[in-house]
Amino acid sequence: MLLDALTCSRELWILSRYLDMTLNDEFDELTALQVYTTLAQTSLGSYLMWDFFREHWELIVSRYEGGMHQMTPLVNAVTSTFATKVKMRELQHFYESNVHNVGYDAPKGAFLGALDKTKANVKWLDENLVIVQAWLETAVE
């Protein structure tokens, strides 16, 4: 519970330091995974976690190589808020540059699923954003 509470900080330097602590022996793999997934679900943490994830990809893969099935919930958490064309391109580029070279299927499948979900989110926003905005404007009046 304390670990989850620490992810609620609004101080970027605290969250960054917290993430850095997961890279050494201060946290075991499961605890680090909990920090990653919980932080990725916060508004500030979702951006920070995506940058951290890309920056430390090789270390994260080597750390979880014995339990690559843990990569799926991590990828899902890190990419769960993606709904823009920019994030879709970043995700596609990251996959093409890094993930497809991994010799394990778990992260590949997780990233392909995340790409599909992000594409669906972008499509939904393209089709419905104006409608929802109009409805909200009339509902608030």
Q: What secondary-structure arrangement, pairings included, does this model have?
A:
Layout: H1 2-6, H2 12-21, H3 29-40, H4 43-55, H5 57-63, H6 71-79, H7 85-97, H8 105-140
Helix pairs in contact: 2-4, 3-4, 3-6, 6-8, 7-8
Structure write-up:
This protein is mostly helical and 141 residues long. It has eight helices and no strands. It has helices at 2-6, 12-21, 29-40, 43-55, 57-63, 71-79, 85-97, 105-140. Helix 2 packs across helix 4 (43-55). The longest helix has 36 residues, at 105-140. The radius of gyration is 17 Å and the shape is globular. It starts with a helix and ends with a helix. The mean pLDDT is 87.
Keywords:
mainly alpha, 141 residues, 8 helices, 0% strand, 74% helix
Brief synopsis:
By secondary structure, this protein is mainly alpha-helical.
Rg of Cα set: 17 Å
Helix content: over 70%
Distance between the termini: 41 Å
For the residues shown, what is the average pLDDT?
Answer: 87
The helix/strand class is mainly alpha
Number of helices: 8
Shape type: globular
